[in-house]
Amino acid sequence: MTRSTTLAPATLAETIRLRLADDITAGRLAPGSVIDESALAERFGASRTPAREALRELAAAGLVVIEPRRGARVASVTQEQLAEMFELMAETEAMCARLATFRMTATERFGLQTLHADFHPDEAALDTYDEYNRAFHNLLYRGTHNSVLADHALALRLRLAPYRRAQFHEDRRIERSFAEHGAILEQVLRGAGEEAAQLMRVHMLTASAALAQYMRRAHS
């Protein structure tokens, strides 16, 4: 899997969103800090339109609070709140893995297998792995053939996306995450839905623990 052939180029708004999310989760922007839209646009050599779009997306993810006539500021999210959100995400993703195991078509299984087999984590930068990671989970969501569950999983993913991305800053987390995907995939291909669900649950809770460790070190 190479970025040139499989990953769409980032829009300016997406670039701003990703970099600002990294600054927030790493503690470079403290909770309550004011984010000046004009200064943000100037930082990236952009107009205020992509900066405003990036702030709206970060607000949807809960990282930023936008108040009328007061602008944007970094939201305060406690470790307890993050743990609760990851707990909900773990159960949702486990259900997706279990249902997808039993409901994916042969073509969908082949697509998931190919995505994983063609990726090389030792060559992956954070942005590239983040894109692969989203694709892997999205294929499982679609594989449930349950649109309500898939939409729910996608909504949770949007809310947690910056935090799920931040965990990959931890030492060797990309390699470990990829190995966890491989174990889940093996159970999906075996038709072992309950085992796939359990591994997915552990995968998400491990991500939560990696995030907590990263944030503790970044904020210390």
Automatic annotation (TrEMBL):
<dbReference type="InterPro" id="IPR011711">
    <property type="entry name" value="GntR_C"/>
</dbReference>
<protein>
    <submittedName>
        <fullName>GntR family transcriptional regulator</fullName>
    </submittedName>
</protein>
<dbReference type="InterPro" id="IPR008920">
    <property type="entry name" value="TF_FadR/GntR_C"/>
</dbReference>
<dbReference type="InterPro" id="IPR000524">
    <property type="entry name" value="Tscrpt_reg_HTH_GntR"/>
</dbReference>
<dbReference type="Pfam" id="PF00392">
    <property type="entry name" value="GntR"/>
</dbReference>
<dbReference type="Pfam" id="PF07729">
    <property type="entry name" value="FCD"/>
</dbReference>
<dbReference type="InterPro" id="IPR036388">
    <property type="entry name" value="WH-like_DNA-bd_sf"/>
</dbReference>
<feature type="domain" description="HTH gntR-type">
    <location>
        <begin position="10"/>
        <end position="77"/>
    </location>
</feature>
<dbReference type="InterPro" id="IPR036390">
    <property type="entry name" value="WH_DNA-bd_sf"/>
</dbReference>
<keyword id="KW-0238">DNA-binding</keyword>
<keyword id="KW-0805">Transcription regulation</keyword>
<keyword id="KW-0804">Transcription</keyword>
